[in-house]
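Please produce the structure of this protein holding zinc ion.
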Amino acid sequence: MSRATVGEMTRETIHSSNDDSTGGFCEVALARPFLQQLTYRVPADAWQAASPGARVLVPLGGKRAIGFVAALKRDSELKNVRSIIELLDPEPLFPPALLDVARWVAEYYVAPLGMVLRAALPPSLTTLRGKAGRDTAREPALRRQVIRVVRELPTLSERESLFGRATRQREAYEVLESLGGETTVSHLATQLGFSRAVLQGLVDKGLAERTTQIVSRDPFAQMGPVDSSGPRLTPTTDQAAVIRRLLEQASDDQPGVALLRGVTGSGKTLVYLELLERVVTEQGRSALVLVPEISLTPQTVSRFRARFGDLVAVLHSGLSAGERYDEWRALRDGTKRVVIGARSAVFAPVPDPGLIILDEEHEGSYKQADTPRYHARSVAAMRARLEGCLCLLGSATPALESWANVQAGKYRLYELLARVTGHTLPRVELVDLTQAREEEREAAESSATEPSPGPLIFTRRLRKSILARLERNEQVILLLNRRGYATFVQCDGCGKVWSCRQCNVSLTYHRRRRRIVCHHCAYEADPPLRCDECSSTELTYTGLGTEQVERGLGELFPQARLARMDLDTTGTKWAHFQILERFRQREVDILLGTQMIAKGLDFPHVTLVGVINADVSLNLPDFRASERTFQLLSQVAGRSGRGAEAGEVVVQTSRPSHFALQAAARHDYLAFADRELEDRLEPGYPPHRRLANVVVSGLNEEAVAEATERVADWARSLFEQANIRDAEILGPAPCPIDRLRNRWRWHFLVKADRPAVLGFALREMATHHGQLGGRLRLEIDRDPEALM
Ligand code: ADP
Ligand code: ZN
Ligand code: ZN
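Below is the modeled complex.
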């Protein structure tokens, strides 16, 4: 044996010195909600090949489970240790640095290592199905049933005579229309609740047809071949300077983290591409590119594919298990060297990354909402450190955590403060909704012809701007960060608000589907006809949602071609692509949607962005509410005026003097950051102090409250005993949403000045209170993105 690793040498020694050896032992990390690892015996034949990180099939209780070798050891003091059933990976599964990244994640976020490793792998490798992990055969092509409109009904009277009292049919037809005339049967039936009989009715009337389609699972393949023949963009002077300085940093021994603050339209993507060119093409290394949500960024993805072709692996939720596994293998084996994906792509098994990029680094979706609750930005920075490569964060509105790291000298700052086109950023006007309502009322009173207005959706100011765009054949983006028709159904008689049976939240009325729906669980019901408490039939629908805006738009601008993009219209896998493609082709004049439409879109003919109500995110009970609002407004404003024509932004709000809105209107990130950092100082919120949210949940409210008190008291006395003075416990109190999917929820916050102290407290807590018993659950969310 010539060049054995340390691990192999150890085993070699064990074997030669112990003739009677039947192998050894291993600590196994299981993907189960406990931190402890379990000891198993490793038989001689597997012992030679076993390595840390390898998957093993083990007996667990009366069942079998897949776990990971966390450590190998020669002896164990335990009696009656069971043996592993099979070593599933005779070769190391992870590049060594990646295993260290996973260990760091487990330690920092106080998560079971087995759950971290599972999150880092394609699901087919960690689910028991037949012979575990061997099932990598490609699945047959997907077939799906599609139903599409074949006859349009331009007039209202036609509709009325055709449908008569078949209102469900009419609703199904209109839903289909709003989805662009085509969607899958399963979307209509399962997600939207139309019965097969209703859909058949449409077919029988000759209005729609049903066909079977064979679909490729890869939307990027569906987008057709990428054109890489076109002329490459030459970096501007500003871009070139940033690229040169970033390359300098990247060539340091320990490059660390760089933050690129570039205003919307400043050409950050070209900076990424040029850096990747050096790393991937010239140095032959690999690279990770993380984006917040892959289906929303088809344009960015296609620019990477155009440059790096077959070297690119795009990890997205539409891949089948087999395809996911294939991509994972190709990355591990080095046949693909550029990976683009959302949060979990930070664990892509590329052997030698030379660069890790996180675009839109401020996005909350980089934080995983369940165990392991890692933040991809933190993991990327740690991975870059362990791999010795540069981590590049990009954003127009950096997270305050990142900004504080710049100020503390931990991250190096690069800036692109002008748009590539040379245009200034769009003019943003804040329109006061309270004042506008007053004016509308006066106008309605003085003119008898105008009908009394319902809820004010569009102020005069916004209506005028939309109309001007339609006349000039330019495009409009409208944002309202709330889906459905109305967010409250309330009884005028007694004030009752209809809420979910399983969650303490109000139900949202969805008009097209004619259901009231919970946005947190699957609960839905028919809308009430009368109050079940006071029998009143006077019910009010309040709280504007995108569906109502869509209807309002249709009435105000019947000539405009609309598309709505929110969770309700994008239920099918490639709906995002289809909607965005129609908008790009200018088959749509007005694109209306939730925050989905605020990200990375680059459409040169959009010259107006309207925000229907900026208060929605401002009023959330969360310490990040101002920051989220500032970011969302800056992002969506950045969609306007990206082409030859200058752009304009109209923001409706009842709090026009709020500093976050004022700063967004002036595109003044620095002013926003200064003020917000100051506001967070006194309450001790991040980035000033480190934070963890500890949530206890269970079926019985009293037991939950009692357990939360107990753990919080325990944590307080821990700090006292250890004489820790720069940490504190806040609470406990019920969570803002204190019942979710039938579980009551209480929480408390742990705040500490030093990360090590916070980590210590959380690990102690998990060790002593991780298993609360009685179906109670304790969840630790370190560096939380939201406290709901
Ligand atoms: P950002 O991500 O910073 O908002 P993008 O990377 O999307 O900006 O770039 C904005 C637009 O400018 C894109 O249409 C892009 O093709 C174009 N662009 C970027 N750099 C250049 C350049 N050097 N020359 C010409 N066009 C450019
Ligand atoms: Zn009532
Ligand atoms: Zn619910």
